[in-house]
């Protein structure tokens, strides 16, 4: 799985008809900055409102997942989101001039094909994975649905479906590596049973449905008269039933194509948690309602973890900024440059690393018989970390200098000694106004808070 965030190199547009609305639309994938995530934009509406791809914005689950925000609605988002997750793309603005993404061939493949044509762009920020910390389970006894997420340092999904149908019966599909999504899952098409078809039409759904973009499973004997009525309903001169029970002689791409499509839907629906996932997902008889309910449970666990999470540091992962990149931004130099790496940076939070060694020059005079990292230098290191955060708010940080303005509620909780690795984290307490930032800072060693403070800083443009 990717360590760094990715967007796309250039905009790319796909066009077609929406599955349920029947409205033609152009959908343009646009590059987006670090930590942007997935957002839809209704460019056909006044003000061009933005809709975040967030599980809290789900408003309808009638045969697809529909989100709404700022008075704008986007129908059937799951195939589009699945393509982005499958390619490990993190940041994209999806502009639509209609209410629903094009259904294309009923899968995610055409989206992936277009995205790969323009190519992916690596970004200088680490992916903000949510690692499933413990078993998370969802059960719907009425529908015999069960979904579980288990801890795993990877993203794997297994789906089992069980239909009371001689055509499909029980099927399962697995994705053991997200990089296999394009080849193994993305081309699996949406499907429905013949007995559902008429009900969907009467419910004013699948207006854009066509035998070229959906599989219709015939699960009973159909008379010639019914086939004629179906042809009229579908706007076709004639429809027939294949021996395997698929309408209009459509060939399945895989024997278990329905199960693979259910897995595709789940990948797209779980994207609505807002962060890439690490975990093992096991699902029996899932559907959009169950997927979204499960996504809400994951997001709740994610929000709980965010309130108490201690930053983690993996020395094997490439940092957001190494020491050379830090020196391009901060004006400090030896012996007063006190952070070694930046391991996280977004619009509101930054985390850095300081490796404390006995060779620091101040140890020769600061308690030389019992070396302790000076508290005042911990504050300075935290201020430098905060300086990275405030400089990240301007497009040309090399033309600005951060200045430490004040400190409040500073507390030292534990001594820091040579051999310790300090993780500094600074978070904005409010939006930056007139170049002034107020931050909450904490320092951690071995998962314990060793120092904390509230700080204010300013960024001032350098004189020409």
TrEMBL record:
GO terms for molecular function: (3R)-hydroxyacyl-[acyl-carrier-protein] dehydratase activity; metal ion binding; UDP-3-O-acyl-N-acetylglucosamine deacetylase activity. It is found in: Cytoplasm. Its cofactor is Zn(2+). It catalyses: a UDP-3-O-[(3R)-3-hydroxyacyl]-N-acetyl-alpha-D-glucosamine + H2O = a UDP-3-O-[(3R)-3-hydroxyacyl]-alpha-D-glucosamine + acetate; a (3R)-hydroxyacyl-[ACP] = a (2E)-enoyl-[ACP] + H2O. Its main location: cytoplasm. The keyword Hydrolase applies. The active site is at residues 288, 366. It comes from the Bacteria. Pathway: Glycolipid biosynthesis; lipid IV(A) biosynthesis; lipid IV(A) from (3R)-3-hydroxytetradecanoyl-[acyl-carrier-protein] and UDP-N-acetyl-alpha-D-glucosamine: step 2/6. Zn(2+) binds at residues 79, 261, 265. InterPro entries: FabA_FabZ, FabZ, HotDog_dom_sf, Ribosomal_Su5_D2-typ_SF, UDP-acyl_GlcNac_deAcase, UDP-acyl_GlcNac_deAcase_C, UDP-acyl_N-AcGlcN_deAcase_N. One of its GO terms (cellular component) is cytoplasm. NCBIfam families: fabZ, lpxC, PRK00006.1, PRK13188.1. This is Multifunctional fusion protein. It comes from Hymenobacter aquaticus.
